[in-house]
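User: I'm curious whether this sequence folds into something compact or stays loose and floppy. Could you predict its structure so I can see for myself?
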Amino acid sequence: MKPVTYELIKKDEKTDARAGIIHTPHGSFPTPIFMPVGTQATVKGVSPDELKDLGAGIILSNTYHLFLRPGLELIRKAGGLHEFMKWDRAILTDSGGFQVFSLGELRKITEEGAEFRSHLDGSKKFLSPEVSMEVQRALGSDIVMAFDECIPYGADYDYSQKSTARTARWAKRSLDALNSDRQGLFGIVQGGMYEDLRKKSAEEITAMDFCGYAVGGLSVGEPPDLMGKMLKCSAEKLPEDKPRYLMGVGTPDYFIMGVSHGIDMFDCVYPTRVARNGMAMTKTGRLVMKNSAYTEDFSPIEKDCGCYACRNGYTRAYIRHLVRAGEIFGLRLLSLHNLYFLQDFMRRMREAIIADCFGEFCAEFTANYHKHG
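Assistant: Here's the prediction. I'll summarize afterward.
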């Protein structure tokens, strides 16, 4: 039996939305699910116990950053990433491909892999499918991502075609290199913004026996309608008996888009990043807590919210004061709220699928979203 498996609970009758359970060596979690991002082996400003309290069953950590600092040898000596960061639930590690892509001119991609300069000290480094698998094996994550190249938005057809073909070859090398019965490897569909390349990539990647499949290279600057089109033609080729993951997406409108196309898993730094900029996520959109409108607003961030901040009576006025004063506690309260908001949104969406009212849930949420900026 594979180390990571998918169990279908309910499928929506009118869309491809589905509710399920993903089983891993460090526990099972319901889907659809949002994975908080712990880039440096921590979700910024939030403890493992707090993550559990808000309902997180899995988090994501970053191979590229942990490869550079503190390095795989230290994490291996610590007993793996779970022990190192004291998190006993599931962990997914990305391959490092997206971070290498984001380095721009600091990296050079060849058939063998990606040579790049560290953003920390400028030293030369190298990542390949084999190196990425070695690092992720040392990290001991439950879900491992194949090494791929994220194609930049605007890339021409010829570049996209060559890159997509290379990603398929790298996927095979990743599969050959991992050699672990305790870690589930996911393949990644690429193809840029070209429908035929997306379909071909999905066919080639799903022909390999991965534990799950991800759709990569989206939400990289393209308009939402184009993203939806590329997601649809990618996701419809993925097998129904394995997990499906849309990489790098972290807002409710995109969750609805993804879940409607059968996606189970999402991740993004968005909720904690905007929290550190003083922004709260709510059912009616974003609240910029620095705004003077909240100076004497003694209501919670959001009525009927079960997050730590709201259920303990911390008001908008107080959080505004903390944010303006540069107090870390204010940013922590917003981080806890935003992460809870997304976990709760996924929970309610899952319940709607099971209750056969997914369409109504989406329509009601969309009608109220964006009322605040």
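Summary: The chain has 15 helices and 16 strands. The two ends are 48 Å apart (CA to CA).
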